[in-house]
Amino acid sequence: QDDACAQRIIAAKQILGKRVAILAHHYQRADVYRHADLTGDSLKLSFLAAQTDADYLVFCGVHFMAEVADILSSPDQIAILPDMAAGCSMADMASLSNVERAWREISEILNPDETITPVTYINSAADLKAFCGEHNGIVCTSSNAGKVLQWSFKQREKVLFFPDQHLGRWSGHQLDIPLEEMPVWNFDEPMGGLTPEQINKAKILLWKGHCSVHQMFQPQHIIRFRNQYPDGFVISHPECNYEVCKASDYVGSTEYIINTIAAAESGTRWLVGTELNLVSRITEEFKSQGKIVQFMSPMVCMCSTMARIDPQHLAWALENLVNGNIVNQIKVPIEEAKLARLALDRMLKIS
Ligand code: CIZ
Ligand code: SF4
């Protein structure tokens, strides 16, 4: 059955030719990833999407990535997400209404538009990127969060960082901001559950959001590895919690993780704290170079929402294109896209 599906995908691709580009994120499952024309992290994929002449960008990733591809590509290109249920649980932890409420509540004690730069991780809905565009804020990725924070502090004294508290905390820590100046804004409570003193003192207000995949990695996984392999290296994604990042030798985005291990010497051993599909793929890839790459957790940590993009959905979306039907198009409303583009362009300019 798997084979039959793969054959359908290959056949549809052959008919569509250069009219279609299949993009796959690093976290994508192997049976989908193998059909990709372009691969990378969300930002790299969006750039690649904007550069191709393909009419249809079939995005094998999650919803916010297809939105960014739609925003950055030309107006006549069409972004398609093979399964609309492929969301990002972290992105869902920040909604426009909750962020707007935070902005209103903060304005009871200080003028947020004069004192706060809103920064949204690329893992967020387009309307939040638009909010940042409108309020002189900016987007960041896991590759450029530090640079984006530095830019933000040049604009205003404070940052509201959403949705990922861990990326915000780690990036702030890298800039020597003390943890007590980075309180978490709990949107379930009035005033984020913070006192006016805490808000006044804060350099970064972190959002109560996290990645359900990366939260599974724990410091004891690293301790166990180091006891067993004292010469081994530990590399983690900044969506991991602070203790895990602190205990790692290297912390960075998926592109950074891949490039760092690629540049390492043969014979080295690596413990990697990020999504399982990516780690399994590079374990195989680097084996031939004599590098041992192992997954950080004893549990299976996969991005289950991204895994919804399976060969069946991909085949279905492609065959519809063959028949002249566009299914599951991701189209960000024009005004929202314009504002989101502002916040994205600010990031692209400094990174
Ligand atoms: O931006 C991306 O693609 C994500 C989700 C992670 C990363 O570090 O590349
Ligand atoms: Fe979202 Fe986590 Fe999946 Fe990344 S791994 S897309 S942050 S749920």
Cα(first) to Cα(last) distance is 44 Å
Q: Write down the CATH class of the largest domain.
A: Alpha Beta
CATH fold-level label of the largest domain: Rossmann fold
Specify the helix fraction band.
Answer: 40-55%
Bound molecules: (~{Z})-2-methylbut-2-enedioic acid, iron/sulfur cluster
**Mean residue pLDDT:** 97
Secondary structure tally: strands: 13
- What is the level-2 CATH architecture name of the largest domain? 3-Layer(aba) Sandwich
Counting DSSP H or I runs of 4 or more residues, the number of helices is 16
User: Any idea what the shape is?
Assistant: globular
Structural class: alpha/beta
Helix-strand pattern, N to C? HEHEHEHEHHEHEHEHEHEHEHEHEHEHH
Briefly say what this structure is.
With 351 residues, the protein is of the alpha/beta class. 45% of the residues lie in helices and 15% in strands.
Topology (elements, then pairings):
Elements: H1 2-16, E1 20-25, H2 30-33, E2 38-40, H3 42-51, E3 56-60, H4 63-72, E4 78-80, H5 96-106, H6 112-115, E5 116-121, H7 126-134, E6 138-140, H8 145-155, E7 158-162, H9 165-174, E8 184-185, H10 196-201, E9 204-207, H11 219-228, E10 233-236, H12 242-247, E11 250-251, H13 254-263, E12 269-273, H14 276-287, E13 292-295, H15 311-322, H16 334-350
Parallel strand pairs: 1-2, 1-3, 3-4, 5-6, 5-7, 7-9, 8-9, 10-11, 10-12, 12-13
Helix pairs in contact: 1-15, 3-4, 7-16
Iron/sulfur cluster is lined by residues 27, 62, 88-90, 123, 211-213, 239, 275, 303, 305-306.
